[in-house]
Each structure stands twice: as structure tokens, then as C-alpha cells.
Amino acid sequence: MHELSIATAIVERATELARRHDAAGVEAVRVRVGEMSGVVPDALRFSFEVAREGTVVEAARLVVEEVPARARCAACEKEFAVGTPPFLWCPHCDSPTTRLLSGRELEITVIELAEATA
Predict the structure, then answer these.
(1) What average pLDDT is seen over the chain?
(2) Binding site annotation covers 93?
(3) What is the pLDDT of residues 21-63, one digit of tens each?
(4) Confidence of residue 115 (pLDDT cuts 50, 70, 90)
(5) How many domains does the chain have?
(6) Of the residues 10, 32, 49, 51, which has the fewest C-beta atoms closer than 10 A?
(7) 2 among the known binding-site residues?
(8) Among 111, 100, 87, which residue's Cα sits nearest to residue 34?
(9) Residues 36 and 59 grouped into a single domain
């Protein structure tokens, strides 16, 4: 399960940011996960629960934005959903395409820090 290594990297990045800003902790981490990224969102959520134990991220929520895979046809320029398993064939003009617009994302978009108490 490679989601555990991804969750560990997310926790490490959030911990580093919290320390750099002298934050009391981390309230939430928001990530974007593309449909074709190879990451299973539920497995990432579970792995995050495990990876955050005993860290300044322990109380944080993981908010996952799932990004659907979409492509644009080179022949007719129409956009369409790729689906799972991926089908890179335009449903509008019956042409093959390889131009993905979205669906490969795997990124941290926001880390919400808790304010330090004086």
C-alpha cells in the first residue's frame, strides 16, 4: 500500500510547516487526488490516520478533493470524461486522444495551522 508512504510524506510536510511557523499544531490538510493518480482516496485517509499518530498533525483532518479524469479530443476539441478504467477514445467523433486535462493530480493544496497559545 503506497498510500502509507504518501500519507507519511504529507504528515512530514505539515509537521515541517508547523515548526517553521511556530504553530501549536495542524488543523487540516487538503489534498487533490486525481482519478488516474494510482492513489485510492479511502486508503490514503486510513493511512493518514496511522501516519499522524504522535505528531503535531495528530488532531488534523485530511480533506481529499477527488479530481475526475478528463480529456480533450485533438480532432474535434470536445472534452469528455475518461472514466475507470481509462478510455481515451472520443465519444463525440470516434477518434483516439492522449491529451489529458485532469486526473493525474496528487498535491497538497492547503495546510491549516493552529495558532500557538501564548
Answers:
(1) 93
(2) yes
(3) 999 999 999 999 999 999 999 999 999 999 999 999 999 999 9
(4) confident
(5) 2
(6) 49
(7) yes
(8) 100
(9) yes
**What is the CB neighbour count within 10 angstroms for residue 75?**
12
* Statement to judge: residues 49 and 80 lie in one domain: no
Indicate whether 78 and 113 sit together in one domain: no
From the number of C-beta atoms within 10 Å of its C-beta (0-12, 13-18, 19+), residue 41 rates as middle
To 10 degrees, the CA torsion angle through 4, 113, 34, 106? Answer: -60
Q: 34 and 16 share a domain?
A: yes
- Does the annotation list 8 as a binding residue? no
Check whether 92 is labelled as a binding-site residue. no
Which residue range(s) make up the domain with 15?
Answer: 1-68+103-118
